[in-house]
Each structure stands twice: as C-alpha cells, then as structure tokens.
Amino acid sequence: MTRTFFLLLTLPFCLLCVGVSAEEKAGQQKSDPALERTRKTVRMLDDIYKGGIVAITANYVNDKDTIPAGTAFKTVFKAAAEKGWHEVRLVDGLGEPLNEENAPNDAFEKKALKSLVAGKTKWFEQVDEDKGKRVLRVATPIPVVFEKCIMCHDNYEGVPAGQAIGALTYKIKIE
Questions:
Q1: Which of the 8 DSSP states describes residue 155?
Q2: Letter string b/e over residues 24-62, b meaning 16 or more CB atoms within 10 A of that residue's CB
Q3: Comparing C-alpha atoms, which of 2, 19, 167, 36 is closest to residue 93?
Q4: What per-residue confidence (pLDDT) applies to 146?
C-alpha cells in the first residue's frame, strides 16, 4: 500500500519532468534566421516567376509559332545564375520532357518531382552544401494552368487542369 501510494504521488512529478525535458529539447533547437530568410526569398521568386509565366501565356501566347513563356523565362533564369544570384530550372515531372535539358538532373529533383506530381506536397526542400557553403534546394509544382499549355506541350494532353506536370527547382545560397 505504501509503495502504491508513493508511486501515485511521484508519477505526476515524473511526468512533469518528462514534459520539462521535452520542452527543453524543443528550446535547444535553435532557429535558423538565415534559412528562414532564404525560404522567404524562394517563395518571392517562385511567385514572380510563375506569375510572369502565367501572364505571358495568358496575354501573348496565341499559336504554336509563339515562343512558350517557359522558354522565354529560361533566359531570365540563365541571367540570374550567371550573376550568381541563384539557380532555377524548369523540370519535367512526367518523364516526357520536350527537351532533355528539362529532365531531372539528380536525386533531389527526382525525389521532389515524385512527391509533387503525386500531390503529396506543394513545397519540397533540402539543405545541401555546395563549395563549402550551405544552399537551400527547393522544388515547387508547375501545374497545367491553361488549355494553351497543351498547344506547345502536347505531351501533357489529357492531364487534368491543376495537376503538377513538373517543377521549378531552386538552388540558392543561405546567407
């Protein structure tokens, strides 16, 4: 009886200690302001790039002779990389790229596309190291937005509107 009473008396205290211990562990996980800033930058870039591609497609792509907005943006992506800002790529997610340069390059892109195309996530990220510096790698889905998309990308015919067909992949320094 005394042992039972002692256990009942000390059990709440032990549980409290476990709770405090868990809180202390959570507090020990240091925030990473540089990583958060970099994520915010990628979100901004993603909104700008996708917004631009959608606006150009909606207003200027009218027939097969028109340069697809994604192709036009590749020059913007190249300029950003040449200036050392960040890298961004248009990557096919269905295994049928019109250009081989749009095929996934590495394990990160393959894993990210699998997740995005399956609809498991809308943001896939990984922190890596490149030349001794931390970088954030992110992939965001590119869905079928317009019927016009199929005009230039007939390999996506039959894909439902809103379904991810690929991704924009980013690689940006965490500073």
A1: G
A2: eeeeeeeeeeeeeebbebbeebbeebbeebeebbeeebe
A3: 167
A4: 80
% of the chain at pLDDT higher than 70: 83
Contact 168, 89 (CB under 8 A): yes
The Cβ of residue 22 has, within 10 Å, a number of other Cβ atoms equal to 10
Instruction: Give residues with Cβ within 8 angstroms of 72, minimum separation 6.
Output: 56
Of the candidates 140, 165, 123, the one whose C-alpha atom is nearest the C-alpha of residue 51 is 140
Tokens of 61: 């792509």
Whether pTM > 0.85 for this model: the answer is: no
> Two tokens at 102?
């749009």
The burial of 18, by beta-carbon neighbours within 10 Å (0-12 exposed, 13-18 middle, 19 or more buried), is given as: exposed
